[in-house]
Predict the structure.
Amino acid sequence: MMTSETPYSIATQTRKHFQDLDFNQHMIKHIRSYLPGSNQQIIIVCIGTDRCTGDALGPFVGTYLSKLKLNHMNVYGTVHSPVHAKNLKETIDTIYSTYKNPFIIAIDASLGKASSIGSILVGKGSLQPGAALQKELPNVGDIYIAGIVNISGFMEFQILQNTRLSIVMDMAHKIAKLLFTLDRYLTERKRVI
């Protein structure tokens, strides 16, 4: 869980509300521009926990993705096997020992302004999980996808516990569809090469 004020490069970041009609097209364009040109293995790290509604965005994305047939991505973090504060470092170590030079897409929930709830941010660089709760966790990702699920600024843990599950699930479904579309793009790109 991070906040939308978490330091990361805004110059290479875009945001769009998940219900916008051009959401998929807009986000795919930006994610494609961040992808490596090589055959690096793409790893999706879905960060969060199923014990807190507001922090379940990542695990729901991972669960939705695990039900799809992905050709070019491996997924870590689901509702049944979450990647959270207690196992994040171990998961990152496992990824780097399993894959040679992996390209990591990190997914996490975020808190922000009331007017930003429902926005999804995509950017180049890593995100800082746990920043909203002042947790010291390793930065994760070559690029990130963060969904603003609720407001920040005061009593973040209480806010997370009282976040509507419906918005978290709807946003997670939209992010999973986005990544599935990206996987299909990578399949087509490979056929052309």
About this structure: The chain is about 35% helix and 20% strand. The chain has one domain: 2-28+39-186. The first helix runs from residue 23 to 34.
